[in-house]
Design goal:
The protein is α+β, with helices and mostly antiparallel strands. Helix content is 29%, strand content 26%.
């Protein structure tokens, strides 16, 4: 198989999947991160970190969303690229995904938001920033076993986001670092993945454990 064909197959196989960082990756916000990868092609890759709550809601981050149905969405650190840019992403597990993103100075499509909010196979998410990879960069990181690729698990993600949303209203807030990462790995059939899920968050380097 030609290299271009192998690349296309890799892009197709990973687009829409989750990437989970290996424990030795300690750089924030990728430490014990779960990343949704909506785009992966010849131009590089685009992702959003799902596992890094910022401790505030979309409405508290921008008055543009105060009073809208999205105001209580927990705001996630989506990645280090353009952290000042707010985005709302809606997606479903069905083959035809509904997605949209809006910046903080644009109007929210409230009808579409409401329709996704009450679909059991859909999830609405709010992010500050995003993750990006240059052409060939993510391919190289995958070869170096920096990431674990898994099917997208929006059911577990919905549960996690609901917990984060409730927690944002409390004064004594939880530390959610590594929580989604551990839960998704614990559900896998591979024993080595389940073993990783039990690693204490402080032990970032397996060689030191």
């Amino acid at each position: 198989m030609a290299k271009n064909d192998k690349d296309k197959l890799l892009w197709q196989n990973l687009s829409g999947k989750f990437l989970l960082s290996m424990p030795h990756l300690a750089e924030e916000p990728f430490r014990r991160a779960v990343i949704w990868l909506p785009r992966f092609d010849a131009d590089g890759a685009l992702g959003f970190v799902l596992s890094s709550p910022m401790g505030k809601t979309l409405g508290s981050a921008s008055i543009c969303f105060t009073g809208t149905p999205a105001q209580h969405l927990p705001l996630m650190c989506g990645g280090p690229v353009e952290p000042e840019q707010l985005a709302i992403i809606g997606t479903g597990e069905d083959p035809v995904n509904h997605r949209w993103s809006v910046s903080s100075n644009m109007e929210l499509d409230e009808e579409l938001f409401k329709s996704l909010q009450f679909r059991p196979d859909a999830i609405c998410m709010a992010f500050s920033g995003r993750a990006e990879w240059a052409p060939g960069q993510l391919e190289d990181e995958l070869k170096r076993k920096t990431w674990i690729s898994l099917p997208a698990d929006f059911v577990e993600t919905r549960h996690f986001f609901a917990e984060v949303e409730l927690d944002a209203r409390r004064e004594d807030r939880r530390d959610f670092k590594g929580v989604l990462w551990s839960r998704i790995l614990a559900k896998q059939s591979r024993p080595d993945f389940r073993a990783l899920s039990r690693l204490p968050y402080e032990k970032d380097d397996l060689n030191d454990s």
